[in-house]
Amino acid sequence: MPAIRTVRRTPAPAEPAGPRLDHAVAFRFSAADRDPAPGDPQPYVDHLRALHRAAGTPDPTVELDWLTGGARVSYHDMVRVVVERLGADLAGVDLVVTVDASPDCRHQSFPACLLAAALPGDPLVLGISEQGVAGPFTALRLAHDQLRAGLRRRALVLVVEQSTLPPGSFAGRVEDVAVALLLDAGPGPGPRLERPEVGITGRGAEAAPPTPDAPPGHPCAGAWLTLADRRAGPGGWPYGPDGRLVIADRDPVLPYACRVTLTRPAPARQPGVLPEVAVRPVLEPVA
């Protein structure tokens, strides 16, 4: 999990807030969530072999214990559980963006298509894969632009990670997890940035302390798991005193430093009503 730290930033003028983030929900899966008949793994094996032949790298499918004896909780299984648990919170979603850091161990299905089929209407479906840490930031930028332009009303960004991976795929432990981020198109005024912000930093971000609070093992979901866990805790959304929250990370392979600013509009919300969080994602090349 990434660390949460306090950072100071230069005061900035107030800006109109854009789309708001009203849900951040973490899901952790076990073998009990797996499809009892997950299907033939051979298409996945054939796909991996073709990829490694094309890249000239060693074949990871010589030994298949990691696949046949693994958890095999697929993105298909995760989508089913997410839809069941979120239920009515998915009402009105007309944009779906899924994010994963690796191919699904269930090669026969695609999570974005399954989500689209489970939702009413005809949502626009996008999928982002193999962008590592940058994937969720890219997804938020796409959702933000669609909502702000008035092309969509409500978006679901679903970040998924699975533990059934070829040996050497990622350093450290990887769990079967998902994070659902739900965004609305509602506007709101942004407050001035006058006090220290609270920041959530992934392990790749500069100055992220390598402490036990920030272990490796989440190729793209780490910062978002932290956000969802803090949001679900007794303190609610982990804003700073200025009503802003900055999430930042840097991919260890791709040349991107990423950050997103979540802004709570200045007017107080009514008790029992979900707070609004405006989203301003930035994806910056690293010099």
From TrEMBL:
Protein name: Uncharacterized protein
Listed Gene3D superfamilies: 3.40.47.10
SUPFAM superfamilies: Thiolase-like
Alphabetical list of InterPro entries matching this protein: Thiolase-like
Superkingdom assignment: Bacteria
